[in-house]
Amino acid sequence: MTIELGLMLTGMLVVGFLSQWLAWRVKLPAILFLLLAGIVLGPVTGLLQPDKMLGDLLFPLVSLAVAVILFEGSLTLRFHELRGIGGAVRGLVSYGAVVALLLLALCVHWIAGVRWEIAWLFGALTCVTGPTVIAPMLRTLRPTERIANTLRWEGIIIDPLGALFAVLIFEAIVSRQEGHTIGVFVVTVLCGALIGTLAALLLGFLLRRQLVPEYLQNYATLAMVLFAFSLSNTLTHESGLLAVTIMGIALGNMRNVHMDDILDFKENLTTLLVSGLFILLAARLPWPLPHGMLWAGIVVFLVAQFAIRPFTAVLATMGSGLNWRERALIAWVAPRGIVAASVSALFALRLGELGLEGAEALVPLVFILIIGTVVLQSATARPLAIWLKVAEPEPRGVLVFGSDAVARAVGQALKEEDVRVMLADDDWDGIRRARMEGLPTFYGNPASPHAERHLDLTGLGRLLAMSTHRERNTLACVHYRQEFGREKVYRLRNLSPDENTERVALADNLLAPPLFDEQMTHARFAELLARGWRIKSTTLSSTFDWPNFIEQYGSDSVLLFGVEEKGTLRVASAKRELEPRPGWTVIVLVPPAGK
Predict the structure, then answer these.
(1) Which residue intervals define the domain Cation/H+ exchanger transmembrane in the entry (predicted)?
(2) CATH classification (class only), 397-590
(3) 3-state SS, residue 515
(4) What is the assigned CATH class of domain 56-388?
């Protein structure tokens, strides 16, 4: 049966969305479901045949998509962040990555029998983890803060560095395969680096001087990335990937260039490209695999999981201050991700065109390693963390969406009771004030793709949506219901019950229970603080219980939170009224003295 091209492409988008949605529901990396979907549509059923469907357009489309993915990944590498990452991460992303590259190359050469060129390329592609696979795994793993920070920063930093390793090795292989001298290889690298740097400088100049209107900045960035890629490839063959990687690193480290909106756009675009690209690439896998390749891939995965990662992780974390339990868990967790899958497929296409023997083995070997590490580590990392006693207990911290006076006052009160608090907002002035008050902060929308990669949720188990933007509160509640659970997501009303329309009230009730009492809104809370009301914490006892507290401070007092003797936080809500008991610490909004 022949399926129309338009229907097939839109069907891939639908399958990609369903794979992403399923990954979100079960809290697993989306790459796993995308690859499995492609394998089912391609080798298993034969419904999707990329080479026949796209013909000569396949390589250019894959090349452009990978260029955008590499640019977006390299855009997140900030050099100033390298100074504060600690010895463990520094070791993992430097000599640890180099040792892993060498050992993986030796392993795949001896076990799978591939040529040295393919072996070195395999090592460069698979020595890295990535934030898109680490982030969802950490949410279910919930390790201690030191482990979570180490694994998260390793993924963020090594992702673009690994891309740079792989591109340089690929350039060397292509130069050798085409009979070029070392001088030609050096010229290729210099041309790619020069084009990437000039493109970054030009785009940075345009953005810094505001010569491009805000609504065209994303368009301009995408056009510049693809133009730099194509121009570099035209001037010196195969230098385009290096150009966009250098362009992303250079642009991401420029001063006075606001990149947050562009980064959000690129992350959303990358999600779309990755969803379609991985299905397309997995559908191209030959089935059955070349003789012996399946078992060779499984053995390579086992050696990488049980020998190479433990050795390099232990080596890289020596003298870091981590104890042996923490180092053991880090040695187990190293899922491979987007860079390995997308770039390996593109390189295999190009090397196959050049007639390099064994190039067809690269993609199956990489995909087996990706699927093996994601499946095994997702299933075993949490039990292993519990057994090693490096798993966080049930998280009791609070993520507060908002940074105005109301959110800061609530965050400060919780912090004083030893409750971990994180204030997240994209209002820089509010975030700056929160930092000056000593509150932990995250600058950005907590429901954005950027937050998926950079917001550390370790120890956080509740959301208080307290921003002044009702729509963003709604989005945050929807996003974190799946993350924390429906019963641990709350919102501070922006409209009183009298102001709500019937439709808005129905939607609000479906999202999250309102904070504090039936009449409390953000505006009312802010007004009370301005009139001198304050948040007071008091530990109740048998001689000074809740009725005594109300008698002393007035019936107008508003109960906000209760902290039980064991440290469990209780949130007061219009839907779940609290009954404070002796031994609890109550956090209450009380009127000024004398009223």
Answers:
(1) 17-387
(2) alpha beta
(3) strand
(4) mainly alpha
